[in-house]
Amino acid sequence: MAGQERARDRREDDEPVDDGPDTGAATAAAQQRDAEVDALLDEIDDVLETNAEQFVRGFVQKGGQ
Amino acid sequence: MTVRRVMGIETEYGVLQPGRPNANPMLLSSHVVAVHAAARSAGRGKARWDYDDEDPLQDARGFHLQRAAAHPSLLTDDPSRPAPSGEAGAAGGASDGDGPQAVARSLVDEYEDPGAANVILTNGARLYVDHAHPEYSSPEVTNPLDAVRWDRAGEQVMLASVRALASTAALPDVALYKNNVDGKGATYGTHENFLVERAVPFAELAARITPFLVTRQVFTGAGRVGLGQRGEGAGFQISQRADYMEAEVGLETTLRRPIVNTRDEPHADPDRWRRLHVIIGDANLLEVPTYLKLGTTSLVLWLIERAAAGDATDLGADLDRLELADPVRAVHTVSHDLTLTARLPLADGRSLTALEIQREYLAAVRAALLRLGGEVLDEQTTDVLARWGSLLDRLGTDPASCAREVEWLAKLRLLEGMRRRDHLEWDHPRLAAVDLQWSDVRPERGLYHRLVGAGAVERLVAEEDVQAAVTTPPEDTRAYFRGRTLARFGAHVTAASWDSVVFDVPGAPTLQRVPMRDPLRGTRAHVADLLDSAPDVRALLAALGA
């Protein structure tokens, strides 16, 4: 996915830059993590059970060890 | 000092027939196993499990549970009576030098109960139905990285079953999940096994390992949506298994589950070894947690062994000072505390966080290393120590940075993202669905596999190494003899177990049982030449007896 590629490229570019322990860098890292998660969520939307409630209700197991 | 020791992982998989929630799980599990039996028996024999040396009621505290007093779900050593579920209710060279033993041949074929479906794989693993779940018991390995490799091979074995059943119209479709809970009250296990020197008194072993097992979930937990055994509370917790731990020490595995299980069935020389059967752990899809779970536990066991041997008595005493006031409550506290700051009361009145207790164990292991130094550390030991320390540091300062390595954080990251994006509360079924579908073994369905595809999790084992491990055994344990024997002479193997292989040699008056009491014999170095040069099974047995 294009969005995801972008997210990964940006991380590689950002890593060598050391801005010191200021909050700007921390915020940028957090934003970049959010972008990664959003890309993953887009993928998951495509495969997640469409009827989540029914899937969860039907997931019944016997106890084991 | 080393992380190396004989170890293995058994995993019960969740089993469903999609669209049919009332399908019989024992029957589904039997199909999962039987498709491998059918594949194996094409042109080969069908080896059954050899139960002769099994004794699940032997208690490490030195007594033996009376069979009549045991809960039926613990009676796993009688194939004609499969153990039922425990709700409201098995690690392991060739001959030890004493050679093959004669075993009477049954006059009639033994009755095969489909519920006792059981296959021994050419990689040395056992695939069978345990209670109402298909279980993959990995072959014995000697190090954490191999444990990861043959554990992942198990995922591929399960995937092969799913595919085979999906392509056979006459058999039900099955979906398999590498997790431990259904969110309705049922749990099923992922057990680690470690051989530990018998010289360590069991009470000392249990006391010194307990605070470690209680707190290691901060980096081994797989994450779970739902709080309480039936998920009665909304929320997320670190561990799948935590809420089901109800006792400190005990023999049971299916009810009143203990932090330290006392099943004392070493499948090895009982004078030298005991088997620590760890039932508190979660099934992990991420490789780093499996690797560290086996690696760090092995290191702590090493320290406990050395302390018992008098090499580091003071360091053993350091561990004693970590005794928890209430270990069972602490398991739950740690699992429910996503901030990793909850303080756990200790028996001596102090209180420490889970991370602080883990740092105490790491410090004691490092101190023992300096003290008993002189040894050059092997690569995996160095790596496990470095990763353990790094994770404990980062979990304390920047947990989000651990999401590529720690499963509960990888899962939580997705769930929090979904909550933020879609404005969901923790009791929303989509979040529970993410948790369950996370562990679907099918790459096109399993959400963990989406993370793999996106490069969002760290991998330790190459895909081709996993594929090779599906059919080939580890080379440095007796699993090599078991697996290679089945691959080459499978038609003449009537039964096998962790510590035996039983041969039916054409023309021989009796069956021939080859005992394998030492897990570190029957390795490639020991028996490869013998196996490769024997033209037939008769020659193999003759060579083993020589």
Automatic annotation (TrEMBL), chain A:
Span-the-membrane segments of this chain are none
Cross-link Isoglutamyl lysine isopeptide (Gln-Lys) (interchain with K-? in acceptor proteins), where in sequence:
Q65
According to its UniProt record, what is one Pfam family this protein matches? Pup
The UniProt GO MF terms for this protein read: proteasome binding; protein tag activity
Bias kind Basic and acidic residues: ranges: 1-13
Q: Does the keyword Signal apply?
A: no
Modified sites of kind Deamidated glutamine: Q65
Keywords tagged on the record: Isopeptide bond, Ubl conjugation pathway
Which pathway does UniProt place it in? Protein degradation; proteasomal Pup-dependent pathway
**GO BP terms:** modification-dependent protein catabolic process; proteasomal protein catabolic process; protein pupylation
Q: Where is this region: ARC ATPase binding?
A: 22-59
* Regions of compositional bias (Low complexity) in chain numbering: 22-32
Region (Disordered) residue spans: 1-33
Q: How is it modified after translation?
A: Is modified by deamidation of its C-terminal glutamine to glutamate by the deamidase Dop, a prerequisite to the subsequent pupylation process.
Answer whether the UniProt record assigns the keyword Acyltransferase to this protein.
no
Q: Give the family, as the similarity comment puts it.
A: Belongs to the prokaryotic ubiquitin-like protein family.
**Assembly state and interactors?**
Strongly interacts with the proteasome-associated ATPase ARC through a hydrophobic interface; the interacting region of Pup lies in its C-terminal half. There is one Pup binding site per ARC hexamer ring.
Cite the domain annotation text: The N-terminal unstructured half of Pup provides a signal required to initiate unfolding and degradation by the proteasome but is not needed for pupylation, while the C-terminal helical half of Pup interacts with ARC to target proteins to the proteasome.
Job description of the protein: Protein modifier that is covalently attached to lysine residues of substrate proteins, thereby targeting them for proteasomal degradation. The tagging system is termed pupylation.
The name this protein carries in UniProt is Prokaryotic ubiquitin-like protein Pup
Q: What does the record give as the organism's lineage?
A: Bacteria, Bacillati, Actinomycetota, Actinomycetes, Micrococcales
Q: Which gene encodes it?
A: pup
UniProtKB/TrEMBL annotation, chain B:
Gene Ontology biological process? modification-dependent protein catabolic process; proteasomal protein catabolic process; protein pupylation
Q: Which GO terms describe its cellular component?
A: proteasome complex
The domain of life for this entry's organism is Bacteria
Tell me which Pfam families the record gives.
Pup_ligase
Which residues act catalytically here?
D130
Q: Which InterPro entries match?
A: Pup_deamidase (IPR022366), Pup_ligase/deamidase (IPR004347)
The Swiss-Prot or TrEMBL record annotates one GO molecular function as: hydrolase activity, acting on carbon-nitrogen (but not peptide) bonds, in linear amides
Q: Which organism is it from?
A: Cellulomonas triticagri
Q: What is this protein called?
A: Proteasome accessory factor PafA2
Residue ranges for the region (Disordered) are 72-101
Q: Which UniProt keywords apply?
A: Proteasome
Its family remark reads: Belongs to the Pup ligase/Pup deamidase family. Pup deamidase subfamily.
